[in-house]
Amino acid sequence: MQLDPGTVAEGRVTRVTDFGAFVQFENGETGLVHISQIAHSYVRSVSDFLQEGQTVEVKVLGRDERGRLDLSIKELLEEPEEMPRPRAIGKQSPQFESKLRSFMRDAKERGAGGERGRKRKR
């Protein structure tokens, strides 16, 4: 079995780590599915998605400079129609906005005359 970029192959998960999972193929080669290549959604823990001994289908993305296989499960999954949107930050209170403007104005005034009160080192 030739594992060229773009090849889709089935392998067995041999090790799960914090940064991804190692998958071994029937020809004996092993590659890494990085945590970012497991799912379209946020992956907090690889073990939530993959377990040792599990058979998975992966796509070969390529090889790194040392000849190791880079693999992806995400590339074989259908992309969600709409990615979840980040939560909106609530509007700040008018009091906060007023205090911030006052602070910025005072800081600007202090910055303009900031050299006056300092002693110079020689």
UniProtKB/TrEMBL annotation:
CDD domains in alphabetical order: S1_RPS1_repeat_hs4
Region Disordered: start-end pairs: 81-122
GO molecular function: mRNA binding; structural constituent of ribosome
Residue intervals passing through the bilayer: none
GO BP term (any one): translation
Biased composition (Basic and acidic residues): 98-116
InterPro entries: NA-bd_OB-fold (IPR012340), Ribos_protein_bS1-like (IPR050437), S1_domain (IPR003029)
Domain S1 motif residues, every copy: 6-74
Function of the molecule: Binds mRNA; thus facilitating recognition of the initiation point. It is needed to translate mRNA with a short Shine-Dalgarno (SD) purine-rich sequence.
Protein's recorded name: S1 RNA binding domain protein
Upper lineage: Bacteria, Thermotogati, Deinococcota, Deinococci, Deinococcales
